[in-house]
Design brief:
Layout lengths: L1 E4 L6 E7 L11 H8 L3 E4 L3 E2 L4 E2 L3 E3 L2 E4 L6 E5 L5 E5 L1 E8 L4 E4 L1 E2 L7 E5 L6 E3 L6 E6 L2 E7 L7 E3 L4 E7 L12 E8 L8 E4 L3 E4 L2 E2 L10 H5 L4 E7 L4 E6 L10 H10 L2 E7 L7 E3 L2 E2 L12 E7 L2
Parallel strand pairs: 12-13
Antiparallel strand pairs: 1-24, 2-28, 3-26, 3-28, 4-5, 6-7, 6-20, 8-9, 8-20, 10-11, 10-19, 13-18, 14-17, 15-16, 15-18, 21-22, 21-25, 23-24, 23-25, 26-27
Length: about 325
């Protein structure tokens, strides 16, 4: 199933969709998300943890980062003028104190867990509950650290995320965090550097096609061998030389299985695209038009965390 959108013929805008408006925690059917948010077309988006219902990839909406990229995985970015770019995406914030101490922050509002410092904002929700043992929680209000809490075991501590700041979470402590009272500031950078200029970003991966050539390298985006070799339903978003956008959903071949990533890359390339990005697949694969799934029965479609929606007008 393929939907082709030509922004030159009809005034449309593209927006990342999240399952819920007041929190990044949660999953819903894509058709429900698209209907409630008024998208005329929608496709499922990036990866997420189905158990915790937390995001695992980049999301940026109207210039505001909702969730950070992970593992060098690819993303699609676009401007209000519907200029699109697909590339592997790196991202990092840096926390700087008034006396010049610098702390890397590789994760923002992410369900991906690793050692170091992570940041959580109100986009995450009203509060944060510890996700690993012995986390250090620092509350930042008006650019000043106002509270520190030493967490106990996983899920035993819940802290309010302030409206006028954010929460810093330190896991597997490798350094001493700045003390209470410290004045702090944030800066962020992306790789490629120009991605910071795109107000809309949705991460998934891996990249399938660039410059009309299959460039699939799942290892470079830290996808496992079983993920690469699995035969499954697939979804993708792609751009063409005519300036149109393709939303693609692919399911089982007749009398057989779905596609491997390598097969899917070849299929997407055969459509004559310039760039193509693999999206979350399997039971998440969903393509909706007018609030109805067109690629599968809604009974077989799983709930998803996020997607990409098309809206009439700018």
């Amino acid at each position: 199933s393929i939907l082709e959108i030509d922004p030159r013929l009809t005034k449309v805008s593209f927006q990342p969709l999240t399952a819920r408006k007041d929190t990044l925690v949660g999953i819903e059917p894509l058709v429900k998300i698209s209907r409630e948010q008024g998208a005329i077309i929608a496709i499922n988006g990036g990866f997420f943890n189905r158990k915790t219902q937390l995001p695992l990839g980049a999301m940026r909406k109207q210039g505001s980062w909702l969730s950070s990229p992970i593992l060098n995985r690819a993303a699609i970015a676009w401007t209000p003028q519907n200029q699109f770019k697909i590339a592997r995406l790196g991202w990092q914030e840096t926390l700087t104190t008034a006396n010049g101490d610098r702390y890397p922050i590789p994760l923002l509002n992410s369900g991906y867990l690793q050692g170091g410092m992570a940041r959580y904002t109100r986009e995450w929700g009203a509060s944060y509950t510890t996700m690993t043992d012995k986390e250090i929680l620092l509350t930042v209000e008006n650019n000043q650290i106002t509270q520190r809490l030493q967490g106990a075991k996983t899920a035993e501590n819940t802290v309010t995320i302030p409206n006028n700041g954010y929460l810093l979470v330190i896991r597997k402590q490798a350094y001493n965090p700045p003390p209470i009272g410290s004045l702090v500031s944030l800066s962020a950078a992306t790789n490629p550097p120009d991605f910071v200029n795109y107000p809309q970003i949705l991460g998934a991966g891996p990249v399938l096609v660039q410059n009309r050539t299959v460039v699939l390298n799942a290892e470079a985006e830290n996808f496992s061998k079983p993920f690469q070799e699995q035969k499954a339903s697939r979804s993708a978003i792609a751009t063409t030389s005519q300036g149109t956008i393709l939303m693609i959903a692919l399911h089982n071949r007749i009398g057989g299985t779905g596609a491997t990533l390598a097969e899917f890359a070849q299929i997407v390339q055969s459509l004559g695209v310039v760039e193509g990005l693999n999206l979350d697949g399997g039971s998440s694969t969903s393509l909706a038009l007018g609030g109805q799934l067109i690629d599968r029965s809604p009974i077989t479609a799983a709930r998803v965390h996020n997607g990409l929606g098309v809206f009439l007008g700018f």
